[in-house]
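so my prof wants the structure for this chain in the tokens format not the other one, which i didnt know existed until like an hour ago. anyway here's the sequence
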Amino acid sequence: MEYNINRIGNLIKETEKYLGELKSYNIKSKEDLTDSKTFHAASMVVFAILNRIIDLGNDILISENVGAPNSYQDIMPLLAKSNVINREQAAELNLLVKKRNVFAHFYGEITMADLLSTIKKIYLVNDFLSAIRRRVY
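here's what i got, hopefully its the right format
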């Protein structure tokens, strides 16, 4: 297996940067999202995080010759099948990955409740990054 260490490292670094930025917003309730700047900034940071974990997962699958997934929703189950993450992680992360298209294509329909629930689950990404590090480094 040959991993693109530079690309994977950059994706991890960017993901951690965005997670840190999101954490700095200190969003704990819908009230914290009433300011439109915070709402839009948090939405875009979440979108960036989701894009990075999709890219990371896809890179691992390609590097390990598992093949390219047919859709974003195939990435996490394939990573579980390859023992990169466990099935529970895959299911939880897949729920987040599915939200990516909502953020991309239905941005105007995202509610404060939707965003808040995604933010509360986004920190599952930290365990994903740890699993990728263990696998690659």
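also thought this was worth mentioning. The chain has a mean pLDDT of 96.
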